[in-house]
Amino acid sequence: MKDGVYNLKAFKILTFVIATLALILLSAPQSKAQTTSNAAAVSMTFAVNSSMTVTATPGSIVFTSTDSKHATASAPIAVVTSWNLAVGGGNVFTVAYFASITAALTDGTLNIPASDVFASINSGTAAACTQANVNVAAGNPGAICPQIFGGIGVTAQGTHSDNLLLSLTSPTAFGVSAGGYAGTITISAQAT
Prior knowledge:
- The chain has one domain (51-191): Immunoglobulin-like.
- The longest helix has 26 residues, at 2-27.
- It is built from two helices and twelve strands.
- The N and C termini lie far apart (114 Å).
- The radius of gyration is 42 Å and the shape is rod-shaped.
- By secondary structure, the protein is of the alpha+beta class.
Protein backbone atom coordinates (compact mmCIF):
# COMPACT_ATOMS: atom_id res chain seq x y z
CA MET A 1 0.00 0.00 0.00
CA LYS A 2 2.95 2.15 0.39
CA ASP A 3 3.40 2.17 -3.35
CA GLY A 4 -0.18 3.31 -3.86
CA VAL A 5 0.23 6.14 -1.29
CA TYR A 6 3.43 7.24 -2.91
CA ASN A 7 1.84 7.10 -6.36
CA LEU A 8 -1.14 9.07 -5.12
CA LYS A 9 1.10 11.61 -3.40
CA ALA A 10 3.28 11.91 -6.52
CA PHE A 11 0.16 12.24 -8.66
CA LYS A 12 -1.12 15.06 -6.42
CA ILE A 13 2.21 16.88 -6.57
CA LEU A 14 2.42 16.44 -10.34
CA THR A 15 -1.16 17.66 -10.75
CA PHE A 16 -0.41 20.68 -8.53
CA VAL A 17 2.73 21.53 -10.54
CA ILE A 18 0.90 21.17 -13.88
CA ALA A 19 -2.02 23.29 -12.65
CA THR A 20 0.36 25.96 -11.35
CA LEU A 21 2.27 26.03 -14.65
CA ALA A 22 -1.00 26.24 -16.59
CA LEU A 23 -2.16 29.20 -14.48
CA ILE A 24 1.16 30.94 -14.94
CA LEU A 25 1.09 30.44 -18.70
CA LEU A 26 -2.55 31.54 -19.03
CA SER A 27 -2.10 34.67 -16.90
CA ALA A 28 1.12 35.82 -18.57
CA PRO A 29 0.54 38.81 -20.91
CA GLN A 30 0.54 37.92 -24.50
CA SER A 31 2.81 40.05 -26.62
CA LYS A 32 1.13 41.63 -29.60
CA ALA A 33 2.92 43.34 -32.42
CA GLN A 34 1.85 47.02 -32.73
CA THR A 35 2.03 49.13 -35.87
CA THR A 36 1.83 52.92 -35.74
CA SER A 37 1.15 55.17 -38.74
CA ASN A 38 2.87 58.42 -39.58
CA ALA A 39 1.42 61.67 -38.09
CA ALA A 40 -0.36 63.79 -40.70
CA ALA A 41 -0.47 67.54 -39.96
CA VAL A 42 -3.30 69.70 -41.34
CA SER A 43 -2.78 73.46 -41.48
CA MET A 44 -5.87 75.55 -40.67
CA THR A 45 -6.66 79.20 -41.44
CA PHE A 46 -9.70 81.40 -40.99
CA ALA A 47 -9.73 84.93 -42.39
CA VAL A 48 -12.21 87.49 -41.14
CA ASN A 49 -12.14 90.68 -43.20
CA SER A 50 -12.70 94.07 -41.67
CA SER A 51 -16.23 95.28 -42.26
CA MET A 52 -18.54 98.22 -41.68
CA THR A 53 -22.28 98.48 -42.09
CA VAL A 54 -24.74 101.32 -41.85
CA THR A 55 -28.47 100.81 -41.50
CA ALA A 56 -31.02 103.59 -41.76
CA THR A 57 -34.72 103.33 -40.94
CA PRO A 58 -37.28 104.22 -42.08
CA GLY A 59 -36.43 103.74 -45.73
CA SER A 60 -38.38 106.83 -46.77
CA ILE A 61 -39.61 110.07 -45.22
CA VAL A 62 -42.12 112.74 -46.24
CA PHE A 63 -41.69 116.46 -45.58
CA THR A 64 -44.72 118.31 -44.21
CA SER A 65 -44.94 122.12 -44.11
CA THR A 66 -45.01 123.55 -40.61
CA ASP A 67 -45.35 127.18 -41.80
CA SER A 68 -44.61 129.24 -44.91
CA LYS A 69 -40.83 128.73 -44.61
CA HIS A 70 -40.36 125.40 -42.86
CA ALA A 71 -41.07 121.72 -43.43
CA THR A 72 -40.14 118.81 -41.20
CA ALA A 73 -39.55 115.16 -42.05
CA SER A 74 -42.25 112.70 -41.04
CA ALA A 75 -39.80 110.86 -38.75
CA PRO A 76 -36.19 110.95 -37.67
CA ILE A 77 -33.90 108.51 -39.46
CA ALA A 78 -32.42 105.97 -37.04
CA VAL A 79 -28.81 105.38 -38.12
CA VAL A 80 -26.84 102.42 -36.78
CA THR A 81 -23.14 102.18 -37.61
CA SER A 82 -21.45 98.82 -36.90
CA TRP A 83 -17.84 97.86 -37.43
CA ASN A 84 -15.49 94.91 -37.10
CA LEU A 85 -11.94 96.15 -37.67
CA ALA A 86 -8.61 94.34 -37.62
CA VAL A 87 -7.34 96.48 -34.73
CA GLY A 88 -8.84 98.97 -32.33
CA GLY A 89 -7.76 102.54 -31.74
CA GLY A 90 -8.81 103.84 -35.15
CA ASN A 91 -11.54 106.30 -36.03
CA VAL A 92 -15.04 105.70 -37.42
CA PHE A 93 -17.03 108.45 -39.14
CA THR A 94 -20.64 108.40 -40.40
CA VAL A 95 -22.09 111.12 -42.63
CA ALA A 96 -25.15 111.82 -44.78
CA TYR A 97 -24.91 113.57 -48.12
CA PHE A 98 -26.69 114.34 -51.36
CA ALA A 99 -25.41 113.47 -54.83
CA SER A 100 -25.91 117.05 -56.01
CA ILE A 101 -25.33 120.40 -54.35
CA THR A 102 -28.02 122.02 -56.48
CA ALA A 103 -30.65 119.27 -56.33
CA ALA A 104 -31.22 117.53 -52.99
CA LEU A 105 -34.86 117.20 -54.11
CA THR A 106 -36.15 117.72 -57.63
CA ASP A 107 -39.30 117.38 -59.69
CA GLY A 108 -37.17 116.70 -62.76
CA THR A 109 -37.05 120.35 -63.78
CA LEU A 110 -37.05 122.46 -60.64
CA ASN A 111 -34.66 121.75 -57.77
CA ILE A 112 -34.42 122.27 -54.02
CA PRO A 113 -30.67 122.63 -53.26
CA ALA A 114 -28.79 120.88 -50.44
CA SER A 115 -28.38 124.28 -48.75
CA ASP A 116 -32.15 124.26 -48.06
CA VAL A 117 -31.97 120.93 -46.24
CA PHE A 118 -31.06 121.04 -42.55
CA ALA A 119 -30.01 118.16 -40.33
CA SER A 120 -30.32 117.78 -36.59
CA ILE A 121 -28.19 114.99 -35.10
CA ASN A 122 -29.51 113.44 -31.87
CA SER A 123 -31.84 116.43 -31.21
CA GLY A 124 -28.99 118.93 -31.60
CA THR A 125 -29.18 122.25 -33.42
CA ALA A 126 -30.10 121.86 -37.08
CA ALA A 127 -27.44 122.90 -39.58
CA ALA A 128 -27.52 123.17 -43.37
CA CYS A 129 -26.23 120.27 -45.46
CA THR A 130 -23.48 122.37 -47.00
CA GLN A 131 -20.41 120.84 -45.39
CA ALA A 132 -17.43 120.56 -47.71
CA ASN A 133 -14.80 118.66 -45.75
CA VAL A 134 -15.71 115.45 -43.98
CA ASN A 135 -14.01 112.22 -43.06
CA VAL A 136 -15.87 110.02 -45.52
CA ALA A 137 -14.37 109.94 -49.01
CA ALA A 138 -17.72 109.13 -50.64
CA GLY A 139 -19.27 112.41 -49.51
CA ASN A 140 -20.01 115.09 -52.12
CA PRO A 141 -18.30 118.31 -50.93
CA GLY A 142 -20.85 121.09 -50.51
CA ALA A 143 -23.79 118.72 -50.14
CA ILE A 144 -22.82 116.99 -46.89
CA CYS A 145 -24.90 117.20 -43.72
CA PRO A 146 -23.29 117.68 -40.30
CA GLN A 147 -21.34 114.59 -39.19
CA ILE A 148 -23.64 111.95 -37.71
CA PHE A 149 -20.98 110.01 -35.79
CA GLY A 150 -17.32 110.65 -35.15
CA GLY A 151 -15.77 107.89 -33.09
CA ILE A 152 -12.15 108.62 -32.24
CA GLY A 153 -10.03 105.74 -30.91
CA VAL A 154 -12.81 103.15 -31.18
CA THR A 155 -12.52 99.51 -30.14
CA ALA A 156 -12.00 96.91 -32.87
CA GLN A 157 -15.70 95.88 -32.78
CA GLY A 158 -18.57 98.18 -32.02
CA THR A 159 -21.95 99.67 -32.79
CA HIS A 160 -23.25 103.23 -32.47
CA SER A 161 -26.82 104.49 -32.85
CA ASP A 162 -27.87 108.02 -33.79
CA ASN A 163 -30.97 109.90 -34.95
CA LEU A 164 -30.96 112.21 -37.96
CA LEU A 165 -33.93 114.58 -38.30
CA LEU A 166 -34.15 116.46 -41.60
CA SER A 167 -36.04 119.66 -42.29
CA LEU A 168 -36.41 122.21 -45.06
CA THR A 169 -35.79 125.79 -44.01
CA SER A 170 -35.49 128.41 -46.72
CA PRO A 171 -37.49 130.68 -48.96
CA THR A 172 -35.96 128.79 -51.90
CA ALA A 173 -37.66 125.54 -50.88
CA PHE A 174 -41.03 127.23 -50.76
CA GLY A 175 -40.58 129.43 -53.80
CA VAL A 176 -40.69 126.46 -56.14
CA SER A 177 -43.73 125.50 -58.17
CA ALA A 178 -46.35 123.14 -56.86
CA GLY A 179 -45.52 119.52 -57.56
CA GLY A 180 -43.89 116.44 -56.18
CA TYR A 181 -40.21 116.68 -55.35
CA ALA A 182 -38.09 113.64 -54.60
CA GLY A 183 -34.50 112.96 -53.71
CA THR A 184 -32.18 110.54 -51.96
CA ILE A 185 -29.89 111.10 -49.03
CA THR A 186 -27.00 108.67 -48.76
CA ILE A 187 -25.58 107.66 -45.40
CA SER A 188 -22.19 105.99 -45.24
CA ALA A 189 -19.32 105.33 -42.85
CA GLN A 190 -15.57 105.03 -43.11
CA ALA A 191 -12.81 103.86 -40.77
CA THR A 192 -9.43 105.56 -40.72
